[in-house]
């Protein structure tokens, strides 16, 4: 056996998906907040650095010493004292040549401060820029140093502040972040489990795979049904129709989703939506076919959400009813018997008209004796009159078909099988004889005969029917008892199927012996 593929339950999938969504949402929110905090910090630090640079640029001690030899001795202490007091990373004062007059590293004083960001500051602009140096990311504020009431620029003050990285921001807020994250995830998990339970409950605790399988099974069952099925929703739109319904209603195209009144102007379903009352075994003429229709409302939690109709051809229903009850066999027997009696009356009337009175009397006595002998045999040996009447009718039917039906004089039935009534036994006997008569009729003149025998032996009713017809090909013998299978054209193939069905229901067995060109024998054994 192969390994069966296993799926996680829907509740688990929904819980994991919701939990993952909450986790991603919380992490995304934290990252966005951290980025925003970082941006705001940089902006605030840039404004702070610019304020410090502007203040230093306005100090007379710096204005008077920048650009002068030995000016660093005055400017460096002021810059370092301010750096220590404000906590900035560095304060650099340069003249118009870019020469440093202050720096946190004293050895760099007097060196050139070569940076492209200085160019706008040398042009008298005041601004803030962002950069990444050896100390990490930083914001720098540039403020020009002007003298003579702002008419002449003598240098630039540069103030730098190291900005925190995202990792540093996370480390700073982790004492608040982790508890908040845990609470958010717990709330998300609880909500996910609740949502999963509600969705699973709404789906009748079924998994998606189970729902898909049920849908496929329902579709297959609806298509395999012998009845037409049609369903509409509350808005009178068709939601379901099987192939049999399309055939009976004459709707060849796809009609699902269309209004029922558009497809069938004289529809029979909307009234059920309005009344909420089922209607059974109603006859309606649709597409020139008389249908027997059942209509029921579809309710969900007490509310009518649609209606369903099942229907089938009345002719088909009546035909099956006749086959099941044996009425067809009895009616056929009466018809044949009536036809035979009419022929005999015509014969007698003709002999009398010809003045052949003795011949007419002889004919009457011969017919009467033959009929009375068979009637006495059947009424004496067969306990049920309907079975006896069926055999008499088949005897007459055989004469009409010019087939010799021999009913064994040992035929006997003292009681019906316990699991089979007279009507069902009549279906078995009648269909076996009818098939044998039809097979014998197609044989040669010297082979048109059928033998019938019914007896009780070993606690069972034994029924033997044999004909000398063409026989059944070996390749088809396995299929003769299938429903709908027949070698005689459309609309046949129900008789032997009913025989097999009734015999097996009664616990009996059927034995078939057929050879091509030699005829067929069928033996039925039914426990008594």
Give the key terms.
single chain, 528 residues, alpha+beta, Beta-Lactamase, 3 domains, 5-stranded mixed β-sheet, 15 helices, disordered N terminus
Detailed description of the structure:
The chain is built from 15 helices and 14 strands. With 528 residues, it is α+β, with helices and mostly antiparallel strands. It has a 5-stranded antiparallel sheet. A 5-stranded mixed sheet has the order 10-11-12-14-13, with helices on one face. Mean pLDDT is 81; it is low at 1-5.
Helix tally?
A: 15
Q: Which homologous superfamily in CATH is the superfamily of the largest domain? A: Histidine kinase-like ATPase, C-terminal domain
Oligomer: single chain
Q: Over the alpha carbons, how many angstroms does the gyration radius reach?
A: 53 Å
- Residue stretches low in confidence (pLDDT < 50, at least 5 long) are 1-5
Overall spatial form: rod-shaped
With strands numbered from the N-terminus, the spatial order across the biggest sheet is: 6-5-9-8-7
In short:
This protein is of the alpha+beta class and 528 residues long.
Could you outline the blueprint of secondary structure elements for this entry?
Layout: H1 10-57, H2 60-65, H3 72-86, E1 90-95, H4 118-122, E2 127-133, E3 136-147, E4 152-162, H5 166-202, H6 208-224, E5 228-233, E6 238-241, H7 243-249, H8 260-263, H9 270-275, E7 279-286, E8 289-300, E9 303-313, H10 314-325, H11 327-353, H12 357-381, H13 385-400, E10 404-407, H14 422-441, E11 449-457, E12 460-467, H15 495-505, E13 509-515, E14 519-527
Parallel strand pairs: 10-11
Antiparallel strand pairs: 1-4, 2-3, 3-4, 5-6, 5-9, 7-8, 8-9, 11-12, 12-14, 13-14
């Amino acid at each position: 056996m192969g390994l069966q593929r296993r799926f996680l339950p829907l509740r688990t999938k929904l819980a994991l998906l919701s939990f993952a969504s909450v986790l991603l949402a919380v992490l995304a929110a934290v990252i966005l907040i951290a980025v925003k905090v970082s941006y705001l910090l940089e902006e605030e630090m840039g404004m702070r650095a610019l304020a410090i640079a502007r203040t230093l640029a306005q100090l007379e001690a710096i204005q008077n010493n920048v650009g002068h030899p030995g000016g660093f001795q005055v400017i460096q202490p002021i810059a370092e004292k301010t750096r220590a007091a404000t906590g900035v990373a560095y304060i650099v004062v340069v003249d118009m040549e870019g020469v440093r007059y202050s720096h946190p590293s004293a050895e760099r004083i007097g060196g050139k401060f070569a940076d492209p960001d200085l160019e706008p500051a040398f042009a008298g602009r005041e601004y803030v820029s962002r950069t990444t140096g050896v100390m990490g990311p930083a914001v720098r504020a540039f403020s020009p140093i002007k003298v003579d009431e702002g008419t002449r620029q003598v240098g630039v003050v540069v103030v730098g502040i190291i900005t925190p990285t995202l990792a540093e921001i996370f480390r700073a807020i982790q004492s608040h972040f982790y508890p908040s994250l845990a609470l958010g995830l717990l709330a998300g998990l609880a909500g996910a489990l609740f949502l999963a339970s509600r969705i699973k409950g709404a789906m009748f605790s079924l998994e998606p795979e189970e729902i898909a399988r049920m849908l496929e099974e329902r579709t297959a069952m609806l298509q395999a049904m012998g009845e037409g099925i049609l369903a509409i929703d509350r808005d009178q739109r068709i939601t379901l129709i099987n192939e049999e319904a399309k055939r009976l209603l004459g709707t060849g195209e796809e009609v699902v989703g269309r209004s029922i009144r558009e497809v069938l102007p004289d529809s029979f379903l909307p009234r059920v939506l309005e009344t909420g009352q089922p209607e059974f075994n109603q006859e309606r003429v649709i597409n020139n076919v008389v249908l027997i229709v059942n209509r029921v409302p579809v309710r969900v939690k007490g509310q009518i959400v649609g209606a369903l109709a099942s229907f089938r051809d009345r002719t088909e229903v009546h035909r099956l009813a006749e086959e099941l009850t044996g009425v067809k066999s009895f009616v056929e027997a009466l018809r044949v018997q009536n036809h035979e009696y009419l022929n005999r009356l015509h014969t007698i009337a003709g002999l009398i008209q010809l003045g052949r009175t003795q011949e007419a009397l002889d004919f009457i006595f011969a017919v009467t004796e033959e009929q009375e002998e068979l009637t006495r045999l059947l009424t004496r040996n067969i306990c049920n009159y309907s079975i006896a009447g069926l055999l008499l009718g088949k005897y007459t039917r055989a004469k009409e078909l010019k087939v010799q039906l021999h009913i064994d004089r040992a035929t006997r039935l003292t009681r019906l099988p316990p699991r089979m009534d007279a009507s069902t036994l009549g279906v078995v006997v009648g269909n076996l004889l009818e098939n044998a008569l039809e097979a014998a009729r197609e044989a040669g003149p010297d082979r048109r005969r059928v033998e019938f025998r019914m007896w009780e032996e070993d606690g069972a009713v034994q029924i033997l029917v044999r004909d000398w017809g063409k026989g059944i090909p070996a390749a088809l013998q396995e299929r003769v008892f299938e429903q709908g299978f027949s070698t005689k054209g459309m609309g046949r193939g129900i008789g032997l199927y009913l025989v097999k069905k009734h015999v097996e229901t009664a616990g009996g067995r059927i034995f078939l012996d057929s050879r091509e060109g030699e005829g067929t024998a069928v033996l039925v054994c039914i426990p008594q």
